[in-house]
Specification:
The complex is a heterodimer of chains A (471) and B (100). Chain A is globular and about 70 Å long. With 471 residues, chain A is α/β, with parallel strands linked by helices. Chain A contains 14 helices and eleven strands. Chain B is mostly helical and 100 residues long. Chain B has a domain of 38 residues: Histone, subunit A, CATH 1.10.20. A two-stranded antiparallel ribbon of chain B has the order 1-2. In chain B, strand 1 and strand 2 form a beta hairpin. The longest helix of chain B has 18 residues. Chain B is flat and about 55 Å long. Classes of the chains: A alpha/beta (471), B mainly alpha (100). Chains A and B meet through helix 8, helix 9, helix 10, helix 11 and helix 12 of A and helix 1, helix 2 and helix 3 of B.
Chain lengths: 471, 100
């Protein structure tokens, strides 16, 4: 793997030795962004001033990071990757920003993303295609495209993204970084632009598993402004990373290794799983029989919730308003036509159709019932295993333009990540080497039962160690 | 393939005007996704309760108190009302809802 630059741990060490200060680290990243962002298009132009802070016991003090541009910081522009919000200024702070700010972390900028977090490639932003730092002719994955590219291209130490069907894990896999999607209800979504409210969750991109544990500790917890957050203490994830995994039961779902999985991804994933066995884990073959229906369920529920959530962008209270309307109705229809790109339009249309009279039972209700069966598959599996391991994405990063004309082919890149959001459970993607054919990063996905982030972080740390020692 | 009438009816419900090109594209794209979704018909869901959300938390409310974190000063007012494309003295201006 390549050297990704400063981690939280290495920056803190340098601060302690006196060889680096937070201000110099901030300037270091500002100049890297100035140098490399033209090529990667990972950041939006909004910039943030350096906040002077005394070094203290907080792990994140002075650590530069980036936020996906669908998270609000009061007084600054948040576009959500959409033209309809090109000039929108946030009225308040997102809870994740407040928490990171309170922990001493230093915001560098906002990252480019697929419009309103719809996309698996970073090609759907109104502000241009985001490129993969490993190969700029390829996509970084999406929708948190800029957040993944910024970490992989060493344009920040860590970043936050949002994951509705794989939007953290899939780009993390394609960019060779660690991406965590926590349990639904673990991290507050106050100040996150809603896409699909029963699925959305905020999570992290980092260069190491340990960094991911640190950032998750800082952003997790109940929030009175997001009543889907669960009243449960946040464990010290970073303290249980190195726990021995002897006897830990790792489930291998046969449905995640079938047709569509590329050979080079399969090789690396199987090798990582073999490493876990060498380290004492017990491999258990399992079945998640309703996996093949997850994507179909997702493409009913997600567009339905999206159609409802995006109805707020109507050109009246904020955002783009058309100049050519003759009636209130036309203000809505023309402002939305001018402001939304192709993918939001497609999903709003699909969702509106699925929720319309006469189709509701056949589509939305049916999907929610199959969703219950998908959840039941996981419940059954977790009676026998501690974690589930498999590929994060079926292929390595694909070429820009390769799938943009075929929505269904694009949707299939989320086939292994979508079931996790439907079930509301936590999962992460950890790098497990480079594909033999392409030389591009492959991600291993680890899934646990609700609120068992500590287990997958523990296993991911062992995967990371095995990879380091094999080099 | 969806018909023009069907696509137009959905667009009207969704409050999005479609260009001729977009309408053609959507007829094709929606049909391919709907064909794929038809896969769900083969799943036996009799007796299965729909799963609308996963936390099990229901009817949660916050304390009925002033939150205190929003002080409506000129700056906040400007960010809330001031961003409307058409305003008239601290109010959002819209076109008449009566048909001409």
């Amino acid at each position: 793997m390549k050297d990704l630059g400063f981690t939280i741990s290495s920056a803190r060490e340098a601060f302690a030795k006196g060889t680096l200060t937070p201000e110099r680290l901030f300037e270091h990243y500002r100049s890297r962004i100035a140098q490399y962002n033209d090529e990667l298009n990972a950041y939006r132009p909004t910039s943030f001033a350096y906040k002077k802070r005394e070094l203290d016991s907080s792990v994140l003090t002075g650590i530069p990071y980036a936020l996906k541009d669908n998270m609000l910081v009061a007084g600054t522009v948040a576009t959500g990757g959409s033209k309809i919000l090109e000039k929108y200024v946030s009225a308040y702070d997102s809870t994740v920003y407040r928490k990171l700010d309170a922990s001493g972390a230093q915001l560098l900028g906002k990252t480019n993303m697929d419009e309103f977090a719809m996309g698996s490639s970073g090609e759907n932003s109104a502000y241009g295609v985001v490129r993969n730092p490993w190969d700029s002719s390829r996509v970084p994955g999406g929708s948190s495209a800029g957040s993944a590219a910024a970490v992989a291209g060493d344009l920040c130490v860590f970043s936050l993204g949002s994951d509705t069907g794989g939007s953290i894990r899939q780009p993390a896999a394609l960019c060779g970084v660690v991406g965590i999607k926590p349990t639904y209800g673990r991290v507050s979504r106050h100040g996150l632009m809603a896409l699909a409210s029963s699925l959305d969750q905020i999570g992290t991109f980092t260069k190491t598993v340990r960094d991911g544990a640190h950032v998750l500790e800082a952003i997790a917890g109940q929030d009175q402004f997001d009543l889907t957050t669960v009243p449960r203490d946040v464990p010290a994830y970073s303290e249980t990373l190195e726990k021995d995994i002897t006897g830990l039961r790792v489930g291998i779902p046969k449905e995640y290794f079938g047709e569509g999985l590329s050979v080079e991804v399969r090789e690396r994933v199987e090798q990582a799983i073999a490493h876990l066995e060498k380290r004492g884990a017990t491999l258990v073959p399992i079945s998640l029989p309703h996996s093949k229906y997850a994507l179909a369920v997702y493409y009913i529920i997600q567009p339905s919730e999206c159609a409802a959530n995006l109805s707020r962008y109507d050109g009246i209270r904020y955002g783009h308003q058309t100049k050519s309307a003759d009636s209130l109705f036309e203000v809505y229809t023309k402002s939305r036509a001018e402001g939304f790109g192709a993918e939001p339009t497609r999903r709003i249309m699909l969702g509106t159709y699925a929720l319309s009279a006469g189709y509701f039972d056949a589509y939305y209700m049916k999907a929610q019932k199959v969703r219950a069966l998908i959840k039941r598959d996981f419940d059954t599996a977790f009676e026998k295993v501690d974690v589930i391991a498999g590929p994060t994405a079926p292929t390595v990063a694909f070429k820009i333009g390769e799938k943009s004309d075929d929505p269904l082919a694009m949707y299939l890149s989320d086939i292994y990540t979508v079931p996790v959001n439907l079930a509301g459970i936590p999962a992460l993607s950890v790098p497990c080497g480079l594909g033999a054919e392409s030389g591009l990063p492959v991600g291993l996905q680890l899934i646990a039962n609700v609120f068992e982030e500590a287990k997958i972080l523990n296993v991911a740390w062992h995967v990371e160690q095995a990879l380091i020692s094999s080099q | 393939m969806l018909t023009d009438t069907e696509v137009d009816a959905i667009a009207k419900l969704a409050r999005i005007e479609l260009s001729a090109e977009m309408r053609e594209r959507l007829k094709r794209d929606l049909a391919s996704v709907l064909d794929y979704i038809a896969l769900l018909e083969e799943v036996d869901t009799s007796g299965v309760e729909p799963l609308y959300q996963v936390t099990g938390l229901q009817n949660r409310t916050r304390p009925d108190e002033h939150r205190g974190d929003f002080v409506v000063d000129d700056i906040l007012l400007d960010r809330l009302v001031g961003q409307a494309p058409a305003t008239q003295s601290r109010m959002v201006r819209v076109k008449s809802i009566k048909a001409k």
